[in-house]
Amino acid sequence: MPPARGASAAAGEPHLLSEGSLPSSTTGTEDAHADARGAAADEPARSSFAALFSAVMLPMFMGAVDQTLLVTATPRIAAELGGLAQTSWIAAGYLLASTVMAPLYGRLGDRFGRRNVMLVALVMFALGSLACALAPSLRLLVAARVLQGLGGGGLMVLSQALIGELVPPWDRPRYQGYFAVIFTTSSVGGPLIGGFVVHHGDWRWLFLANLPLAALAFWRMSLLPRPHPSAQRHAPYDPLGFVLFALCAASALVWFGQVGHGFALVSLPSALIAAAALGTGVALALQQRRHANAFLPLDILRLPGVPWVCASVAGFAGTLFGLLFLLPIYLQVALRANALDAGLQLLPLTAGIVVGSTLNGRYSARTGTSGRLPPFGLALAALAILALALLPPLPGVITPAAALCGVGFGTVMPNAQLATQILAGRQRLGAAAALLSLTRSSGATLGTAAFGGLAFVLLGSSEGSLQVGQLEPARVMQAFHIVFGVLAGFAALGAFAAWRAPRMDLRAHAERGSAPTPALPRRAGE
CA torsion 496→502→504→508, rounded to 10°? Predict the structure, then answer.
């Protein structure tokens, strides 16, 4: 019987364990029979659910929705502040900052308590939102988005970690399911929310709305139990690893996002930035191998099968976020749709992801295997995007294509999470989760910058001089059809990686408890 669980519920107090009082899912020390004990225990009080859910739901929602909130507002922002060719940095700047900060927030949460670090992240996110709302120029808006991303990088990471720390194992699957729905709907629903606000008002309200939400989340978060002193508080730091990672990620993103229109491919700036990305990347890999408490979980990446899983996640995230950035601009500039209509035309993508996730879950439960559907899902997404590249831009083409993309995308992340958890083993669940989150955010950042940059190169931009009103619809359609074709090829590479990733036998894993489960043998033709 879990300690004092029934008493807490009977007394009507929220059943929230203080941080550190429960074995974390990252330690691998949970009882293998925790679920069985939880089934026999009483349900937690409703106040317990409301207290934690309301405290952690808002930060996760804000962190996820701000990744895609501005995609339908991009043409309006470009018309007001100028420079359509630089607008990809509105999304990429936020994604880059959140990508760099996510592993650091995980480390800081281990040391100083996730509740405390979350409060800091919320304050930084709110300050960045206020700076975005007041930005008088595009460059200052991008800088403010970077500041917002420095806080946003901790919202989702710490929200998920708080579930692992404050919720007993027997209740944790229920919470994780709720937050999976929140993340999916908010990420893909962001363009619809942004389109609605821009259609009826000023795009700056998209940032001002974050201020009361952040204040509410701060208040609810402050009511959670204070953390106990952590054993990780005095673990060795790895500041050099963090600096090298930040430099490598930033220089690589700048090169992919600016080559061809910010500077020529064969030029001194291009060579210097590419050399910086390559040099810091090599130095990071060498330094991380030697550090006792490395910043990045590269040891997980060396496990058989994990690189292919991560490659499939990078293909999924790059394709999804590239499509989310490109499609609203395509609809508004080439087809003259308004922001609200552009957001509404992304709804089939949202619905498709929900359908794909549901079908994938039922298939895995019925067959007891995981990893068979992602190759077909990403291949389906590649074919749908190829249809956007080859067929006329009619609603009868765009809507089904978006829905099929969503169904394909919905099969990827659940399988990737299961595969990395099983391959890494219970002792390294936290490191596996961090690696997958980093891969997903890196792929999203790269997809937004690289494919957005390619579109602007094809449109003939030069140092940010591209203006929305100067673009001819026929020219935009021709350029975006080429980009959609390249994006379809990128999705196909993700499908190949997913085909190479291992299939996991979930029933064998359940029987063996905490022992890693071997991948299913491939059959001929698989």
Answer: 160
- Beta strands of 269-419 (E only): which ranges? 369-370
Condensed to tens digits (0 to 9), the pLDDT of residues 99-146 reads 788 778 877 877 777 788 889 999 999 999 999 999 888 889 989 998
**Model-level pTM?**
0.69
Task: Tabulate helix, strand, coil % of the chain (nearest 5).
Answer: 75, 0, 25
Give the model's pLDDT for residue 15: 40
Residue 519: strand, helix, or coil? strand
Quote the DSSP letter at residue 461: -
Bridge partner residues of 369 (DSSP): 505
Assign 3-class secondary structure to 386-438.
HHHHHCCCCHHHHHHHHHHHHHHHCCHHHHHHHHHHHHHCHHHHHHHHHHHHH
Count of helices and strands (H, E) across the chain? 22, 3
Residue 71 in tokens: 């995609």
Provide the phi-psi class of 226: left if phi over 0, else alpha when psi is between -120 and 50, else beta: beta
* CA dihedral of residues 238, 239, 242, 244 (deg, nearest 10): -110
CA–CA gap between residue 517 and residue 526 (Å, rounded): 20
Spatial contact of 95 and 444, defined as CB atoms under 8 Å apart: yes
Higher-pLDDT residue of 491 and 525 is 491
- CB atoms under 10 Å from CB of 275, counted, come to 12
Rounded distance between C-alpha atoms, residue 204 and residue 128, angstroms:
13
The structure tokens listed for 228 are 């106990």
Exposed e or buried b per residue across 365-380, where buried means at least 16 C-beta atoms within 10 angstroms of its C-beta: eeeebbbbbbbebbbb
The DSSP element (H or E) to which 288 belongs, if any, is helix 268-290
Please state, in angstroms and rounded to a whole number, the distance separating the CA atoms of residues 126 and 122. Answer: 6
State yes or no: pLDDT of 275 exceeds 80: yes
> Could you read off the pLDDT of 352-387 as tens digits, one per residue?
887 888 788 788 778 877 788 899 999 999 999 999
The one-letter amino acid code at 146 reads V
Distance CA(162)–CA(118), nearest Å, equals 9
Least confident among 127-141, 267-281, 435-449 = 435-449
Residue 503, classed as helix, strand or coil, is strand
Buried b (16+ CB within 10 A) or exposed e, 464-484: bebebeebeeeebbebbbebb
What's the one-letter identity of residue 245?
F
Assess contact for 320 and 448: CB atoms under 8 A.
no
Distance CA 234, CA 211 (A): 34
* Measured distance CA(146)–CA(162) in Å, rounded: 25
> Highest mean pLDDT range out of 55-59, 139-143, 514-518?
139-143
* CA distances for 504 relative to 85, 211, 417, 424, 516, angstroms: 44, 44, 11, 12, 10
**From CA 273, how far away is CA 113, in angstroms rounded?**
37
